[in-house]
Design a protein that fits this description.
mainly alpha, 0% strand, YhfH family protein, YhfH-like
Length: 44
């Protein structure tokens, strides 16, 4: 059963920015739907 769950999460498509469509590098604590560029973040 656990292997099936892990396989499900591995096969999810990459999250995409809602404005420009670029792939977003997801973080477990982030629920945002815009990339850093579209949010105006330039310095991390």
């Amino acid at each position: 059963m656990i292997q099936n769950i892990m396989e499900f999460f591995r096969n999810l498509p990459a999250k995409q920015c809602s404005e420009c469509g670029k792939s977003i590098e997801e973080q477990h604590e982030c629920y945002g739907n815009k990339c850093d560029e579209c949010m105006g973040i330039t310095d991390l």
